[in-house]
């Protein structure tokens, strides 16, 4: 199905006078930053960028979260660079780490094996905790209870276009639930079984696709992601009774549906079990997110997280919060609920989205994935130059301020 302008449009074209926004009403929203003390430099880089390009006009509050205690250097430095109010919170053991029903030895052994297999972050216990926290707990933190919307910020991110309108208010006005700016493919080896569980959840809850699920399903041979036939394929070349897809409705084996406690319940991969559907590894890159918290606080999301969690996949595999959020959206939302922030220039470490160099200036006609991976990688050269120039500009600005 096409994600077209029928479902989603850019909120504002061109720059508004942000000073006009100064006295406009604000949404009930905050930035959420999970970080450790040692990441202060990276966090500062992110905060400076957020403030320069958006928050110096809008002054939204920040919530900083940490499984440890933020030290005074961290807190003071942050307070010196933020225009909104700031709260620092500690994440309790009920939201971070192994739940009591997990067999910790099995989990640790699973993580050790992923380290041996050189799976990206697979051997890093804290990374598994972080992914599980962002999948099922951040929105339950007491400091976030009063908020309706959040904007996720990570260390070492950069915005390189001014954001002169209020994205929260526009999300609300347009009835949007979840906003992203980059979609990429996940590393297969980090999530070998994630899709079996997600699609089992969908099936056991009798959820029929509202049109977004297809974004995460590998297209059949001869077809594009949007369901249209590939141009170069002749009609007679397309698979007719391909046995690969004949068993779409076949029920899953019992073991995949089990939800009893304990890590290590993930069985061997059986592609047959996926109702004929195969995960294409696409996910919204969740280090940037602007979303409604009540999506995560909903009964169905909670049941989704619970089922995923009970499978042991946060330990026995290295499920990221990005594919978790994305597949939940796929199962529970429709394309109209999603907003693609195609106008946000954004970079995190090695991947970026640059509207100036991208077809993203136009309304998307192709599905998100093709849109965003395309300019994440292809326009790197032009983006590098733009970013160097921007660095020089702001270095000068900083100099003048002092
Ligand atoms: P990457 O972007 O996937 O390479 O992962 P990051 O290392 O950036 O981690 C994602 C987010 O979680 C960032 O905001 C980190 O600061 C945060 N994070 C990761 N691990 C921990 C941890 O053990 N404790 C805390 N407090 N934050 C963490
Ligand atoms: Mn990161």
Question: How are the secondary structure elements laid out?
Answer:
Elements: E1 29-34, H1 40-58, E2 62-66, H2 72-81, E3 86-90, H3 104-116, H4 125-136, E4 149-153, E5 157-159, H5 167-173, E6 178-180, E7 183-185, H6 194-204, H7 243-246, E8 282-284, E9 289-292, H8 293-296, H9 299-310, H10 313-316, H11 321-332, E10 338-340, E11 346-348, E12 351-353, H12 368-377, H13 380-401
Parallel strand pairs: 1-2, 1-4, 2-3, 6-10
Antiparallel strand pairs: 4-9, 5-11, 6-9, 7-8, 11-12
The protein binds guanosine-5'-diphosphate and manganese (II) ion.
Manganese (II) ion (MN) is lined by residues 154, 287, 348.
Q: How would you characterize the overall build of this protein?
A:
With 402 residues, this protein is of the alpha/beta class. It has one domain (18-217, 281-401): Spore Coat Polysaccharide Biosynthesis Protein SpsA, Chain A (Alpha-Beta Complex). It has helices at 40-58, 72-81, 104-116, 125-136, 167-173, 194-204, 243-246, 293-296, 299-310, 313-316, 321-332, 368-377, 380-401; strands at 29-34, 62-66, 86-90, 149-153, 157-159, 178-180, 183-185, 282-284, 289-292, 338-340, 346-348, 351-353. Strands 3-2-1-4-9-6-10 form a 7-stranded mixed beta sheet. It has a 3-stranded antiparallel beta sheet with strand order 5-11-12. It is globular and about 60 Å long. The model is unreliable at 244-269 and 357-382 (pLDDT under 50). The structure holds guanosine-5'-diphosphate and manganese (II) ion (MN).
């Amino acid at each position: 199905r096409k994600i077209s302008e029928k479902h989603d449009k850019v909120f504002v074209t061109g720059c508004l006078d942000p000073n006009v926004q100064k006295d406009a009403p604000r949404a009930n929203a905050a930035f959420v930053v999970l970080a450790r003390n040692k990441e202060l430099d990276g966090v500062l880089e992110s905060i400076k960028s957020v403030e320069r390009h958006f928050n110096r006009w809008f002054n939204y509050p920040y919530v900083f979260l940490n499984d440890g205690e933020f030290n005074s250097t961290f807190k003071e430095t942050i307070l010196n660079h933020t225009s909104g109010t700031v709260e620092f919170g500690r994440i309790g053991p009920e939201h971070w780490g192994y739940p009591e029903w997990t067999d910790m030895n099995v989990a640790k052994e699973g993580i050790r094996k992923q380290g041996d297999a050189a799976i990206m972050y697979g051997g890093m216990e804290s990374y598994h905790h972080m992914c599980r926290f962002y999948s099922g707990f951040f929105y339950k933190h007491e400091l976030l209870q009063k908020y309706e919307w959040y904007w996720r910020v990570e260390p070492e991110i950069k915005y390189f276009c001014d954001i002169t309108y209020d994205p929260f208010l526009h999300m609300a006005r347009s009835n949007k639930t979840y906003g992203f700016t980059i979609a990429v493919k996940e590393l297969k080896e980090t999530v070998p079984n994630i899709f079996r569980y997600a699609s089992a959840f969908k099936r056991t809850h009798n959820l029929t696709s509202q049109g977004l699920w297809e974004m995460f399903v590998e297209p059949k041979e001869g077809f594009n992601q949007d369901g249209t036939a590939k141009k170069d394929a002749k009609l007679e070349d397309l698979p007719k009774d391909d046995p690969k897809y004949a068993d779409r409705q076949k029920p899953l084996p019992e073991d995949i549906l089990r939800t009893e406690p304990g890590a290590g319940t993930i069985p061997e991969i059986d592609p047959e079990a996926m109702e004929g559907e195969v995960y294409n590894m696409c996910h919204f890159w969740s280090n940037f997110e602007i979303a409604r918290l009540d999506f995560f606080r909903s009964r169905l999301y909670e049941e989704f997280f619970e089922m995923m969690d009970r499978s042991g996949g946060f330990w026995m595999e290295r499920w990221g919060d990005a594919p978790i959020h994305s597949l939940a959206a796929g199962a529970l939302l429709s394309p109209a609920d999603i907003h693609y922030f195609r106008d946000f220039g954004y970079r995190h470490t090695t991947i970026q989205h640059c509207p100036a160099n991208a077809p993203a200036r136009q309304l998307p006609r192709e599905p998100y994935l093709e849109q965003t991976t395309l300019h994440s990688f292809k326009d790197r050269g032009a983006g590098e130059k733009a970013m160097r120039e921007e660095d020089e500009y702001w270095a000068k600005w900083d100099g003048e301020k002092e």
